[in-house]
Write a structure and sequence with these properties.
The complex is a heterodimer.
Chain A: H1 13-23, H2 40-48, E1 51-64, E2 75-76, H3 78-102, E3 106-116, E4 120-132, E5 142-143, H4 148-156, E6 159-172, H5 178-184, H6 192-215, E7 220-231, E8 234-249, E9 260-262
Helix pairs in contact in A: 2-4
Chain B: H1 4-7, E1 18-22, H2 39-46, H3 56-65, E2 68-80, E3 111-115, E4 128-133, H4 135-158, E5 163-174, E6 179-190, E7 196-198, E8 201-202, H5 207-215, E9 218-233, H6 236-242, E10 258-259, H7 261-279, E11 286-300, E12 303-317, E13 330-332
Parallel strand pairs in B: 5-8
Antiparallel strand pairs in B: 1-7, 2-6, 3-4, 4-9, 5-6, 9-12, 11-12
Helix pairs in contact in B: 3-5
The chains are: A alpha+beta, B alpha+beta.
């Protein structure tokens, strides 16, 4: 979606600028100021679909993982998986409460910071609470990590965001036997114990995320982002985290948005690397 | 030039331009008055070609909008710097059972306490835990940032500018000196024929984003920023949880898997304090395009300092929102 600011012939952008300069001489309006981390593009887009920012809102939760959880077992580490789920749920709940307190009906553009350490997991959420421009209150409606652009596009197509949903799984792979270790030395060969650990973590995380979507009454989960691979403090621990926005079809059926084709006339930016200037010898 | 002393303690870093508007901008005749600037800066700014940090597209858009660049203005403040270290009278965080008296905080400042549930005393056992706002760090940061900002604005004023656009700021440590450098810079601009606000406005935006902001009916008032600092001295339960030793009946009921309440509260308090410090600078205007940065330092076993900065452009509505037509989705063919 684009909207061009028309600064071309026929417009007088300077009139607006002079008006703006004059407004700076007036006294501040007073009252409680709105805070928002939205860009001007996002603010304009949100307004075009009937929403406006209210306040920056946060959710933060740290949960503990007991000593020994990673060391003395193989397979899924239930302590870590449930600490992640607990921390995420608590942070999301705080964000909902802050949004409601600020008079918002939803939160867009949530940034999610997740840290997994040996003895704790932290989830930190930052977003902008929004409300309807007509101030129609329908209670709390959604938390979403979708950008304002994606939110506008999604709702135009007849869908509605519900909540952030997450699934996480942490799996400790078994050690290789001495025979396996010896047989794999010096070869580029698959390490089945790690592959299997990754698959186990994947299934656990994806299933939890999809179950959370179903529990929220969603038809699907969009914008799923994954974090997978070994944890920093051990190569044998595979983590898999899936997070996305649960959505449901509010309009009865999907509404095609029929985008217009556009051919930009600006030249593609030319780039080169200094290495390409070297001779081929 | 405003000295650190004269800039210090300004509660509102971005006091909105007021009714002392002057008729027109433009560089004053006879160069830049050198009583407010270092001599060399006054000489440089008063003569020769203007300078700007704007990119070519931003410059083109700014010119189309009616801004004329006047000069690349900058403000600096170098400060001796530390993030932690003041505990208040009677508080000894290093002590186990000794921390019987809480930190001294001023009226209205955040503090919260926890007490050991175990009912016994041991040398390494932290009986009390505290979260408290480090107002002295917040004030130092506001003074340093405010001093750099004020000096940049003074340069803009000396150039007869209406405002400063494309502002960037930075804080970095000077190796081996225990000092930190705060810097703020941007391109001073003049709007010929428009009333000149005093002090000049400032904004992190430039180019098309600034054009869209104004077209949408918002006037940039000034860049605003706030830092919050919360120190957390963990009590025994928090320390046990952070070290992974929380499980077991001997932990006093702390679950092996469960919320680390004291840390969570310190983290939330830091964000809320930064938001409220910043809101006090808005005067009812709106904060646009905020960036939130949080960082923490481990200052001992089970102890943290949590800092949070929020920065953005304070904007004022000068006309009603023109309802936008519903945006038209396009597919860009490349």
């Amino acid at each position: 979606m684009t909207r061009h600011t028309d600064l071309g012939p026929g417009r007088d952008p300077q009139a607006g600028l002079h008006q703006a300069m004059a407004a700076l001489s007036a006294a501040p309006p007073g009252g409680r100021g709105v805070t928002s981390d939205l860009s001007i593009d996002e603010t304009l887009l949100l307004h075009s679909v009937g929403w406006e920012p209210v306040d920056l809102v946060f959710g933060v939760s740290w949960w503990s993982i007991p000593w020994g959880a990673w060391q003395w077992q193989t397979g899924e580490i239930a302590e870590a998986s449930s600490a992640f789920a607990g921390a995420f749920a608590e942070a999301a709940q705080q964000m909902r409460e802050e949004c409601a307190q600020a008079g918002g009906s939803g939160v867009v553009g949530v940034e999610i910071e997740m840290r997994v350490a040996a003895h704790h997991i932290s989830i930190e959420l930052t977003g902008t609470a929004v409300r309807r421009v007509d101030h129609h209150q329908a209670g709390f409606e959604f938390i979403s990590d979708l950008s304002a652009r994606d939110f506008a596009l999604l709702t135009r197509a007849g869908w509605w965001p519900l909540s952030l949903v997450v699934g996480a799984s942490f799996v400790v792979a078994p050690r290789r036997t001495a025979r396996q270790w010896a047989a794999q030395q010096g070869q580029n060969t698959e390490l089945p114990h790690l592959t299997e650990a990754l698959y186990l973590a994947r299934e656990g995380a994806m299933a939890r995320m999809q179950r959370a979507g179903s529990d929220a009454g969603a038809d699907g989960v969009i914008g799923v982002r994954l974090r997978e691979g070994p944890l920093g403090h051990s190569a044998r621990i595979m983590q898999f985290v899936a997070v996305g926005t649960a959505v449901h079809l509010a309009a009865g059926s999907h509404r095609p948005i029929a985008p217009t084709m556009a051919v930009p006339l600006d030249d593609a930016e030319r780039t080169f690397e200094a290495a390409s200037l070297r001779s081929s010898r | 030039m405003t000295t650190p002393e004269s800039a210090a303690g300004e509660g509102n870093l971005s006091e909105g331009p007021n009714e002392t508007a002057e008729p027109d901008g433009g560089v004053p005749d006879g160069g830049v008055p050198d009583e407010v600037l270092p001599e060399a800066a006054a000489r440089r700014l008063g003569h020769g070609a203007w300078s700007s940090a704007l990119s070519v597209p931003d410059l083109a858009t700014s010119l189309a909008l009616g801004f004329e660049p006047a000069g690349y203005v900058q403000g600096f403040s170098v400060r001796q710097w530390r993030w932690i270290g003041y505990y208040g009278a009677g508080f000894s965080p290093a002590a186990g059972m000794g921390a019987m008296v809480g930190p001294r905080v001023g009226p209205g400042e955040y503090s919260e306490g926890w007490r050991c549930p175990h009912g016994f005393v041991a040398g390494e056992h932290r009986v009390y835990g505290y979260n408290f706002e480090q107002a002295w760090v917040e004030r130092s940061w506001a003074e340093a940032w405010g001093a750099a900002y004020t000096r940049m604005i003074e340069e803009a004023e000396a150039l007869g500018a209406h405002g400063v656009i494309g502002v960037t700021d930075d804080m970095h440590y000077l190796a081996g000196t225990g000092a930190a450098e705060f810097s703020i810079r941007g391109t001073a601009v003049v709007v010929p024929g428009a009333p000149r606000p005093s002090p000049p406005f400032s904004t992190f935006l430039a180019g098309q984003r600034l054009a869209k902001l104004i077209e949408a009916g918002y006037a940039p008032v000034g860049v605003v920023a706030a830092l919050s600092s919360v120190q957390m001295f963990g009590y025994c339960i928090t320390r046990l949880q952070l070290s992974g030793s929380g499980a077991g009946t001997w932990s006093g009921g702390a679950p092996g898997v469960g919320a680390i309440v004291q840390v969570g509260k310190a983290q939330r308090a830091a964000r809320h304090l930064a938001r409220e410090h910043l809101r006090r600078q808005l005067g009812g205007d709106a904060l646009h395009g905020a960036t939130v940065t949080e960082f923490e330092q481990e200052i001992g076993e089970g102890d943290l300092a949590v800092h949070c900065t929020i920065k953005g452009t304070r904007v004022r509505r000068f006309k009603d929102f023109d309802p936008l037509p519903e945006p038209e989705p396009v597919v860009r063919l490349r």
